[in-house]
Design a protein that fits this description.
mainly alpha, Ferritin, 75% helix, binds fe (ii) ion
Amino acid sequence: MKANIGIADNHAQAVAEKLNKLLADEFVLYAKTRNYHWNVEGPNFMEMHKFYEGMYEELDEVIDSVAERIRKIGHYSEGRLKDFIKLTNLEEGEYTNDQNTQLKNLLDDHETIARYLRTDITTFAEQYKDLGSSDFVTGLLQKHEQWAWFIRSYIKK
Ligand SMILES: [Fe+2]
């Protein structure tokens, strides 16, 4: 049944497309973070193992909330790995067990997502008149800014 919540059809469609791209980015980042959780090595193994675990657990909730936001504005969410790979702005990258390389890769991804989200906040509100989605992605931006700060604080120059 069609959603009648005061967003024009073409606007809801445009927001859903951007949210599906975001969903793909969050999914790729989730998989990468889990990979690092499994394969990290070093004298502070347990610290990093748990740090990554906290991150992918939060990303798991973020993924769910993005997909469900797409449903709330009357569209279907992507849900196949091959679609996520096609849509994502992020690179999967090569395997690495090196903590500093892992952290730099994750920082780059969180910051990339933050930059897209910052643009989406304004686009959703001003261009597509979808203040609910604009508010929703504002909360996500703050989560990515926080993770970026945490990661940045671990990185050796
Ligand atoms: Fe685990």
